[in-house]
Design goal:
- By secondary structure, the protein is α+β, with helices and mostly antiparallel strands.
- 49% of the residues are buried.
- The mean pLDDT is 96.
- It has an eight-stranded antiparallel β-sheet, sandwiched between helices.
- The chain has two domains: 104 residues, no CATH class; 195 residues, DD-peptidase/beta-lactamase superfamily (Beta-lactamase), CATH 3.40.710.10.
- α2 runs parallel beside α6 and α5 crosses α6.
- This is CubicO group peptidase (Beta-lactamase class C family).
- It comes from Thermopolyspora flexuosa.
- InterPro entries: Beta-lactam-related, Beta-lactam/transpept-like, Diverse_Enzym_Activities.
């Protein structure tokens, strides 16, 4: 789709150029102080890219810089993409959100809820409600992530190999059956916990569509939108653009955990929850699709009512995400709800930062962040590769810095 570049004078879309430069000055310190290897930020308004900047290295060893075409692991920013993919099947009538997951994955029948006891002898009871597709989309299924919980339930997940970034099993069908063999944290629909649910959704997509997840995403999302650099691995010929992955240690120092060429590994089990590799240009196109109500450059993937429905707060009774969460999680903050793949701002005052009601967002484990603000017609992307740095503090500062630059 051409090289990523600024497409307008910021003033043309009501943004102040000098104030936008505060973004760069602020986040440059994170690199200069050794807290991030490098980053890229993109601010778009009314479909025009008004601010694009990059700073630091995509690989600290070689000093290769972050550039507009750098490939990043986007981790949980994969989830909104898979949620959109699922909703294309919804629009075709291939499934309903109320369908029990067991209709597509038989092992999800008769699930049980953890009550007490050690991992070696857990005490469970029958779930009062089947896990439905809606529960998977909203993280209200009772499934968890193994790395989240230090208790017996977390141990059960870890014993099943469900704690790391690489999913176990031979394929998504095998993975889904492994997940179904574990107890739930709570009855579906009675709480919110960030979880492996979207990986299970990947298997639902396969069954409902008859296509492998990677093929479905390529044919139904990436190719129509021109997202040529997005997939579950990077081709060998593109690895010169790949960013290395770092982890932030207890002392705040960065340690290399996966060099850029690690992106060439083709996963046996594609992760619909965290597995995609992408670029700022590709993800920008995905966000423009959302902002425009499901259509971009003459390609319509979803209807505008579906996008509107996905980006409402779906928590029962309009519950606050922080209050409804059953497991401590940094992204669960007061003033926000959760929709079908996104956190949604309900009350900016409670969020404690400038934001618009109806703004929706999510992030990834390596510090990647995005949001879409329909009221201001703004999309924002921040990409880096630092596991453990945390997306909340990046998003909080970035919101401040973007909103202060809006002058009309």
């Amino acid at each position: 789709m051409g090289e990523l570049q600024v497409t307008c004078d910021p003033a043309e879309v009501g943004l102040d150029r000098e104030r936008l430069r505060r973004i760069d000055a602020h986040f440059a310190r994170y690199v200069d102080e050794g807290r991030l290897p490098g980053w890229l930020v993109l601010v778009s308004r009314r479909g025009e890219i008004a601010h694009l900047s990059a700073y630091g290295a995509r690989d600290l060893g070689s000093g290769a810089p972050v550039e507009p075409g750098t490939l990043f692991r986007i981790f949980s920013m994969t989830k909104p993409v898979v949620s959109v993919a699922l909703m294309t099947l919804f629009e075709e009538g291939a499934l309903t959100l109320d369908d029990p997951v067991a209709d597509y994955i038989p092992s999800f029948a008769d699930l049980r809820v953890y009550e007490s006891g050690p991992a070696s002898a857990p005490v469970t009871r029958p779930a009062e409600e089947p896990v439905r597709i809606w529960h998977l989309l909203t993280h209200t299924s009772g499934l968890v992530y193994g790395w989240q919980r230090p208790d017996a339930l977390g141990e059960l997940y870890r014993n099943a190999g469900l704690a790391g970034l690489n999913l176990p099993g031979e394929n998504l069908a095998d993975l889904a059956d492994r997940v179904a063999g574990l107890p739930l944290l709570f009855d579906p629909g009675t709480g919110w916990t960030y979880s492996i649910a979207v990986d299970v959704l990947g298997r639902v997509i396969e069954v409902a569509s008859g296509l492998p997840l990677e093929r479905f995403l390529a044919e139904r999302i990436f190719r129509p939108l021109g997202m040529a650099d997005t997939g579950f691995w990077a081709e060998e010929g593109e690895l010169h653009r790949a960013a290395s992955l770092y982890a932030v240690g207890p002392d705040g120092r960065l340690t290399l955990t996966d060099p850029g060429d690690g992106m060439a590994r083709r996963p046996k089990v594609p992760s619909g929850g965290s597995g995609l590799v992408s670029t700022a240009a590709d993800y920008h196109r995905f966000l423009q699709l959302l902002l425009r109500g499901g259509e971009l450059d003459g390609v319509r993937l979803l209807g505008p009512r579906t996008i509107g429905y996905m980006t409402r707060n779906h928590l029962p009774g309009g519950a606050d995400l922080k209050a409804f969460a059953r497991t401590p999680f940094g992204e669960a903050v007061p003033g926000e709800g959760f929709g079908l793949g996104f956190a949604v701002v309900q009350d900016p005052v409670a969020v404690r930062t400038v934001a618009s009601p109806g703004e929706y967002h999510w992030g990834g484990a390596a510090g990647t962040v995005f949001w879409v603000d329909p009221a201001e017609e703004i999309t924002v992307i921040f990409l880096t590769q630092a596991m453990g740095f945390g997306t909340r503090r990046i998003r909080t500062r970035l919101r401040q810095l973007v909103h202060q630059a809006i002058v009309s």
